[in-house]
């Protein structure tokens, strides 16, 4: 299938909207959402809040904006957030909480399973002392992108909540791909969200919507989040055309994520068989396959990416993490086959 004949495995963000989404967007009832008058946005926000087991939701432009708003509402200037050193918020969001909110980011090492050691988290909580910033929040991520798309279990969330309560902290979940985690463990997403104060999830990744994320939390939190969104320039007008696709995403695209997981496994198991590459199968739990060239392979990563591109296969390459391939709605079994064939041909000469 692919997209325009290309097997694009760089990310699940490349997904185009499905035909059902385009239809829903065309027909969407709209209004001025800054006035609270867009019925489609309201419906999406209510649906999302219900799914997350929270009082209210807020449709935002992106996951980055959702995370930023969540931190801005829960932390003041000179206050601190504890988060993983491989978390998306720490690595890939322009230090926006610091730049725009005066919030200090305090990274704690992420373990290969995506968790942080809770003793280290507790040690990072600042005592009440005139020298220190005040710790306000712990931010979690599930699935954990830079740890391989791995799944953190609800039990870990429970333990973080307990620690947070003991220390008087809030908990935020960057749940960009939290439905992927819930599908793998066959649990309701509320098994995670019940332990957090705020949560952001993306409609625009594996769920295929063209734009948007939803932030969920208490009524009071969302009231403040709405102000923060306006301040950041994220107040949209007839956003129902976008929210309509988000509603289809929630209704139709969640359960099928299991197919993406099956294909990621298929891809990873195929890569294991090709001389010249290494992949840690235990880290392939959802729709992501991080892999690399074996020690002593002649080609470098950019050469491999270039050769794949010539064959219509796109993957990501990272200086410190090898390659990443992500399966999604627009990747079918044949596309996985095509990617494997291109990978096999891209490494010509593994050295002995
Ligand atoms: C993609 C992603 C985000 C940010 O979402 P955008 O919509 O790209 O801004 C946040 N956290 C994680 C874990 C992500 O994968």
Summarize the structure.
The protein is an alpha/beta fold and 352 residues long. Helices cover 41% and strands 17% of the residues. It has helices spanning 19-27, 39-52, 63-74, 88-92, 96-101, 118-124, 154-167, 178-185, 190-193, 219-231, 240-252, 257-272, 301-310, 333-346; strands at residues 7-8, 56-60, 79-84, 104-108, 134-141, 170-174, 198-202, 213-217, 277-279, 288-293, 313-314, 316-318, 322-326.
Could you explain the architecture of this structure?
The longest helix has 16 residues, at 257-272. The protein is globular. The protein is an alpha/beta fold and 352 residues long. It has a seven-stranded mixed sheet with strand order 2-8-7-6-5-3-4, sandwiched between helices. A four-stranded antiparallel sheet has the order 9-10-13-12. A two-stranded parallel sheet has the order 1-11. Helices cover 41% and strands 17% of the residues. The protein folds into two domains: 7-13 and 256-346, Aspartate Aminotransferase, domain 1 (Alpha-Beta Complex), CATH 3.90.1150.10; 19-252, Type I PLP-dependent aspartate aminotransferase-like (Major domain) (Aspartate Aminotransferase, domain 2, 3-Layer(aba) Sandwich). The structure holds pyridoxal-5'-phosphate (PLP). Pyridoxal-5'-phosphate binds at residues 62-64, 67, 88, 141, 145, 174, 176, 202, 204, 213.
Strand order of the largest sheet: 2-8-7-6-5-3-4
Averaged pLDDT, please? Answer: 96
As for the CATH topology of the largest domain, it is: Aspartate Aminotransferase, domain 2
What is the annotated CATH architecture of the largest domain?
3-Layer(aba) Sandwich
Number of domains as seen in the coordinates: 2
> N- to C-terminal separation?
37 Å
Q: Label the overall shape.
A: globular
- Rounded to the nearest angstrom, the radius of gyration is 21 Å
Proportion of residues in helical segments: 40-55%
What structural class should be given to the helix and strand makeup?
alpha/beta
Biggest sheet details: 7 strands, mixed
The secondary-structure element order is: EHHEHEHHEHEHEHHEEHHHEEHEEEH
Which parts are unreliable, with pLDDT below 50 for 5 consecutive residues or more? none
Bin the strand percentage.
Answer: 15-25%
What is the CATH superfamily classification of the largest domain? Type I PLP-dependent aspartate aminotransferase-like (Major domain)
């Amino acid at each position: 299938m692919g997209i325009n004949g290309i097997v694009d495995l760089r990310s699940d963000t490349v997904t185009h909207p499905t035909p059902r989404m385009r239809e829903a967007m065309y027909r969407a009832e709209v209004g001025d959402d800054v006035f609270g008058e867009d019925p489609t946005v309201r419906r999406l926000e209510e649906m999302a809040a219900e799914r997350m087991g929270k009082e209210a939701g807020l449709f935002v432009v992106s996951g980055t904006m959702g995370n930023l708003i969540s931190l801005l509402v829960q932390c003041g200037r000179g206050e601190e957030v504890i988060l993983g050193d491989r978390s998306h918020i720490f690595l890939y969001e322009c230090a926006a909480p610091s730049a725009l909110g005066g919030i200090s980011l305090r990274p704690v090492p992420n373990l290969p399973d995506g968790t942080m050691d809770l003793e280290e988290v507790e040690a990072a909580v600042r005592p009440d002392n005139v020298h220190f910033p005040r710790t306000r929040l712990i931010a979690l991520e599930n699935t954990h992108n830079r740890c391989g798309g791995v799944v953190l279990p609800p039990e870990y969330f429970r333990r973080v909540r307990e620690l947070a309560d003991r220390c008087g902290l809030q908990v935020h979940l960057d749940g960009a791909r939290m439905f992927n985690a819930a599908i793998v463990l066959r649990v309701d997403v509320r098994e995670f969200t019940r332990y957090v104060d705020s949560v952001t999830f993306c409609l625009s990744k594996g769920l295929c919507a063209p734009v948007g994320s939803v932030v969920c939390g208490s009524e009071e939190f969302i009231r403040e989040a709405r102000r923060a969104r306006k301040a950041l320039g994220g107040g949209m007008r007839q956003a129902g055309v976008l929210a309509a696709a988000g509603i289809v995403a929630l209704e139709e695209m969640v359960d099928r994520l299991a197919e993406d997981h099956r294909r990621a496994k298929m891809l990873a198991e195929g890569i294991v068989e090709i001389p010249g590459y290494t992949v840690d199968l235990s880290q392939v739990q959802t729709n992501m396959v991080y892999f690399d060239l074996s020690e002593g392979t002649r080609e470098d990563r950019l050469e491999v990416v270039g050769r794949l591109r010539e064959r219509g296969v796109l993957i990501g390459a990272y200086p410190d993490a090898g390659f990443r391939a992500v399966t999604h709605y627009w990747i079918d079994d044949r596309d996985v086959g095509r990617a494997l064939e291109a990978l096999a041909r891209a490494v010509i000469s593994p050295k002995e």
